[in-house]
Amino acid sequence: MHIFNSAQLLKIIYQFKGVVDVICEACDRLNWKCPSKIQQEAIPVALQGKDIIGLAETGSGKTGAFAIPILQSLLEIPQRLFALVLTPTRELAFQIAEQFEALGSSIGVKVACIVGGIDMVTQVHLLGNKPHIII
How far, in Å, CA of 6 to CA of 81, rounded? Predict the structure, then answer.
């Protein structure tokens, strides 16, 4: 009988959903012990290239549910200006950008968070760096 440590178990669980090793490792670094309900439902569908609409409570892992498939697709087809994520509030935009940066740090993902109330020149500079993900 083989006993798995938590990192190995997490990797197995996420891989079962079709997630590649480097993103599984990022989930482990974020202390995500296993996919949340919304992630279990959304990730396999999104990895097939299908659109998803998900409703879940605050703190349920919704950002991971769409960020993980986006990052995995970016690994498969690397290019700048890969995804645009729209959100209704500045605070949520910053939270989503933070999650993308944390999940994508080991693969060199560049994220630009563009919101109102921030110096336009600064934001133009962020876009000029041709990020992979724009929030």
Answer: 35
The model's pTM is 0.87
Picking from 31, 93, 90, 38, the residue whose alpha carbon sits closest to that of residue 64 is 38
CATH code of the domain made up of 6-134: 3.40.50.300
CB 134 within 8 A of CB 112: yes
- Cα–Cα dist 124/114, whole Å: 9
Domain regions of the chain by residue span: 6-134
Residue 111 reports pLDDT greater than 90: yes
Distance CA 26, CA 103 (A): 5
For 83, the 3-state DSSP assignment is strand
